[in-house]
Specification:
The complex is a heterotrimer of chains A (199), B (326) and C (316). Chain A has 199 residues and is mostly helical. Chain A is built from 10 helices and no strands. Chain A has 2 domains: 138 residues, no CATH class; 39 residues. Chain B contains 17 helices and no strands. In chain B, helix 5 packs across helix 15 and helix 6 packs antiparallel against helix 12. Chain C folds into 2 domains: 58 residues, no CATH class; 225 residues, Orthogonal Bundle (MetI-like fold). Chain C has a two-stranded antiparallel sheet with strand order 1-2. Helices cover 73% and strands 3% of the residues of chain C. The chains are: A mainly alpha (199), B mainly alpha (326), C mainly alpha (316). Chains B and C meet through helix 2, helix 3, helix 6, helix 7 and helix 8 of B and helix 2, helix 4, helix 5, helix 6 and helix 8 of C.
């Protein structure tokens, strides 16, 4: 019902443009993105390689999450205990990730032991030929600083849709938009009765 | 409204049954007879050609999206994005896409379930709205009771109220009354058509003579009998127009179902296709929903266009709104 | 009330006021019940699903409900926030600009074709009438989706066309062109419908008036602008009124086009703002206040224009 930020990198035409070499040949993308791109990569199948993110500061190794799927249990659930158990099994369990990391899902694990598992790191994919992209992705995953979502994520995502538009149209810098976003979220939090401390 | 536009639908109802072709022919002849011969205006031939060209251009403008949706309903997802938009491409997926409308694709909902819902909402909501408007229009036009004028102004005044100012509090009330995800939450508000009441009052005023009602009263007929036997047959053309407008209003309604339904098995078509399109856009090439959005759009508009073609003599014979404003 | 019923008391010999009152009230009471019986079903539905929600919206708009601290009475606090919100009024200005451009263009085209149909100038006029009316049968959601595909910046065929004509890099859904694009969509949706209404109105212009003008060698454009146009003026005024109310409530087109990641902000029109504030941001009290403000503006403008026209003698 509520829009989230559109990731223009995953719409079908850009995928074809990538395949045809029309758009940039080094897209910034997520660890799970290659499996989504794979069906569209026809001419370039096997030619892709994963590389670490370029850094603003030389020598740094900053990385970030790109995603946000959650498997919550709603209050109205008929079987909350079972649902919670399933959710836990699905996201943090060797058995489920044995399934999820393989085709057709090829998702990137949220289960930490798997990230250091050599057999996962050395997996190869048709889209990236003989290379082992998970070496790069698991290394990046270890750099991610934990973040906490606000208790009003729906509002935040919806607001972001508007606040970051001027960046896409080149009217604002990313810094300006983030500053505006910060102000909007603080005032929303205050209006919702939260005590906001900055710093 | 002139007497002639009023009388023509009535005549049809009263006269001997005539076939569709006969009726069309008669209407065409009537139209030709009513129009002043073009040459009398002293139009140059070039002007007439220019006007026809303008009509053709606007017809093309009107048909471009329709042509697009027909052509693209035959394409695969890749075809939609990479082939020439106004010509067919292989593979020919028309039947494949159509078959998908019967399936619950990736849990995003089943098109034909929405289609059934929409028909149900439109039939009960639009039909009920027409019935209520017919009764109320007759009541306001042919009875004067305490406060009748004030009531009528309040109803007409409701046209000025933004739909959101009514829909939003309905949602809040539904949340308390457990009407979220209830089909009645959709149907009951659709029964209210202030435009319908306004149109029917004016139509009854123009087409149901008081003398007829008075004569029936003198004969000792009850008010219900007078309404159903005397007034109703004369009101049919007006009711058809109101029915058309009410059904379109329910069929088009987006805001109310968008906020009161959280189960996709209850969605009407508008919300279902809207959500498909949102999911498709958000997940890019991975959802394979684009052909369904296109095919779903096509199957949504076809019955409506068919309904309009079947009922066109009612909007053609005298679109109430236009006549009433005069 | 029929004319005869109205005149009867006036023509009758003078009676005492009391006698007249009992007679009239007996008459009207009898009528009352019958008339009310016809109006009641609609009246009940109208009360439950229009009046009550409206009052409830006003009631809710006086409270503020928060994640922490629950619901508190906030008086006109929400109204203060709405009235001082630049984003809300920005959306308001946008729909006014939308209506001010879309309605005249649409009505001009609609009137032109209504005249063409009325004169019977074009060949196959019935076919054109049917074609022009088709968009009315297309739900706005579907119309917006179709045009969204056609205008899409990377694969949309109209974008390809614009590029082919030398307007490289045109993005019809960008912040600069999204409003004209939605105006185009609205013109597509509503011109045929408005044209048919005007056509019906034109048909009621008396034939002899036009014939007399023809005999006087009045040129056609003068017959249309000086004779026909004034006679269908009430229909045009009504269409301006209905279309304006619709324009102020613009919602579906921007909402659907926003799925394509275009440039629709969450305060793009007042109703888009109401929707995002109430549903996505869960500030339904604030959303209710916005809806009430929008309604009040519509009512004030409508009543003011009615008084203005009455003073100019256009309304009886």
């Amino acid at each position: 019902m509520v829009s989230t930020v559109n990731d223009a990198n995953n719409s079908p035409l850009p995928n074809e443009d990538l395949d045809n070499g029309v758009t940039a040949s080094s897209p910034l993308n997520s660890a799970w993105a290659p499996s989504y791109f794979q069906p569209d990569a026809k001419k370039t199948m096997g030619n892709w390689r994963a590389a670490a993110l370029p850094q603003w500061t030389a020598g740094a190794s900053v990385s970030a999450d790109w995603g946000g799927s959650t498997y919550p249990v709603f209050k109205q659930s008929a079987h909350p205990a079972q649902a919670a158990e399933f959710s836990e099994w699905l996201t943090a369990n060797q058995a489920s990730w044995t399934i999820l990391k393989t085709p057709p899902s090829e998702l990137f694990p949220t289960y930490e032991p798997l990230l250091s598992d050599p057999s996962f790191k050395s997996l190869t994919y048709p889209v990236s030929g003989s290379s082992q992209p998970n070496q790069v992705f698991t290394a990046a995953a270890s750099e991610i600083q934990p973040v906490q979502w606000p208790p009003f994520m729906t509002q935040a995502l919806n607001q972001a849709l508007t606040t970051f538009q001027p960046v896409l149209s080149g009217k604002e810098t990313l810094q300006q938009a983030f500053q505006a976003f910060q102000g909007q979220e603080v005032s929303y939090a205050k209006a919702q009765g939260f005590t906001v401390s900055t710093g | 409204m002139t007497a002639s536009t009023l009388a023509s639908p009535g005549d049809t109802a009263a006269g001997p049954p005539e076939s569709r072709r006969q009726r069309r022919k008669r209407e065409r002849l009537q139209e030709q007879a009513a129009a002043i011969p073009v040459h009398l205006y002293g139009l140059r031939r070039g002007t007439v050609t220019l006007i026809t060209v303008a009509c053709v251009l606007f017809a093309i403008f009107t048909l471009v999206p329709v042509a697009w949706i027909i052509i693209n309903s035959t394409k695969s997802q890749t075809g939609i994005f990479s082939s020439f938009a106004f010509w067919f491409s292989r593979p020919f997926d028309f039947f494949h896409n159509f078959a998908l409308l019967f399936q619950n694709v990736d849990g995003n909902g089943t098109y034909f379930q929405w289609f059934g819902n929409t028909v149900l909402y439109a039939a009960l909501g639009g039909g009920g709205a027409t019935a209520l408007a017919g009764f109320a229009g007759y009541g306001f036009a042919r009875f004067r009771f305490r406060g009748s004028k004030a009531y009528f102004y309040v109803i007409v005044g409701a046209l000025l109220v933004p739909v959101a100012a009514i829909t939003l509090p309905l949602y809040l009330v539904y949340a308390k009354a457990h009407l979220i995800n209830s089909i009645w939450g959709m149907i009951l508000p659709s029964l209210v058509s202030p435009v319908g009441v306004y149109l029917m009052r004016t139509y009854v005023d123009l087409s149901v003579p008081r003398e007829l009602i008075d004569a029936a009263r003198i004969d000792g007929a009850g008010e219900a009998r007078i309404f159903f036997r005397v007034a109703l047959p004369l009101m049919v053309p007006g009711l058809m127009t109101v029915l058309l407008l009410s059904v379109v209003a329910v069929w088009n309604n987006y805001f109310l179902p968008l906020i009161i339904f959280t189960k996709n098995s209850l969605y009407p078509l508008t919300v279902g296709i809207g959500v498909w399109s949102q999911v498709a856009e958000r997940s890019g090439g991975n959802s394979d929903l684009y052909p369904l959005v296109v095919m779903g759009g096509l199957v949504t508009i076809v019955p409506m266009i068919a309904l309009f073609l079947v009922l066109q003599r009612y909007w053609r014979g005298g679109m109430l709104l236009g006549s009433i404003a005069n | 009330m029929s004319d005869t019923a109205l005149k009867a008391p006036r023509n009758a010999p003078p009676r005492t006021a009391a006698a007249r009152r009992t007679r009239r009230s007996a008459w009207s009471r009898r009528r009352d019940r019958r008339g009310l019986a016809f109006v009641a079903p609609f009246g009940i539905a109208f009360t439950l699903f229009t009046i009550v929600p409206l009052l409830y919206a006003i009631y809710e708009s006086l409270f503020t409900s928060r994640i922490i601290g629950g619901t508190v009475f906030s008086g006109f606090g929400n109204y203060h926030q709405v009235l001082t919100s630049g984003a809300f009024w920005g959306g308001f200005v946008r729909v006014i600009v939308f209506g001010a451009i879309q309605i005249p263009i649409m009505l001009a085209i609609a009137f032109f074709f209504a005249c063409v149909f009325d004169l019977g100038v074009a060949k196959a006029s019935r076919l054109f009438r049917t074609i022009f009316f088709i968009p009315f049968a297309v739900p706005i959601v579907v119309a917006a989706l179709m045009w969204g595909f056609l205008l899409e910046p990377s694969y949309g065929p109209i974008t390809h066309l614009a590029n082919a004509f030398g307007f490289g890099g045109t993005n019809f859904l960008s912040s600069g062109l999204i409003l004209p694009s939605i105006i185009l969509i609205a013109i597509w949706e509503w011109t045929g419908y408005n044209s048919i209404i005007l056509y019906t109105a034109l048909k009621s212009v008396p034939r002899d008036v036009v014939e007399a003008a023809i005999l006087d060698d009045t040129p056609l454009w003068k017959i249309i602008l000086k004779i026909k146009l004034p006679m269908v003026r009430p229909a045009i005024v009504m269409l301006i009124f209905l279309n304006s109310i619709g324009a102020l409530q613009l919602f579906v087109e921007p909402e659907i086009l926003s799925y394509q990641g275009g440039s629709i902000t969450n305060t793009w029109t007042p109703i888009v703002d109401v929707y995002n504030t109430s549903i996505a941001n869960a500030q339904y009290n604030l959303g209710a206040a916005m809806a009430v403000v929008l309604g009040l503006v519509i009512i004030v403008v409508s009543v003011a224009s009615m008084i203005f026209r009455r003073q100019r003698g256009e309304l009886s």
